[in-house]
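Hello,

Our lab assistant flagged a job as stuck in the queue for most of the afternoon. It eventually completed. Since we weren't sure the result was trustworthy after the delay, we are filing this so someone can double-check. Below is the sequence as submitted and the structure that was eventually returned. Let us know if re-running is recommended.
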Amino acid sequence: MFGHQDDTAYGIAWKYEKGQSDVKKVTGDYPAVCGWDVGHIELRDSANIDNVLFSKMKDLMIENYSRGGVNTVSWHLRNPYTDGSAWDVSSDEVVKSIIPGGNMHEKFTQWL
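-- returned structure --
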């Protein structure tokens, strides 16, 4: 199975064009797996970390599933301890802060 992130959301010189897919242009078919990231949903943003609108993502996931595709979802959430990006590793206190009793536990569970 071959997959592609945000396959039908955007590509080379296009965005949100129904039926469009760079993979399909090259191979003649959509990828079997389409990945989606919900990073920034915890901030109540309208779009994810790749600038894909959550409202559009939902529709694209349904379309992919209807074609027989597999959707995967990842969540690169903000660092709840530092408010940095998902890739902020400036502190070794993050896990300790989000588990029960930690000073960021409530914030983290609200995001969930």
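-- support follow-up --
The delay was a queue issue, not a problem with the job. The result is valid. The beta strands are 3-5, 10-11, 14-15, 33-37, 70-74. Residues 63 and 69 are 9 Å apart (CA to CA).
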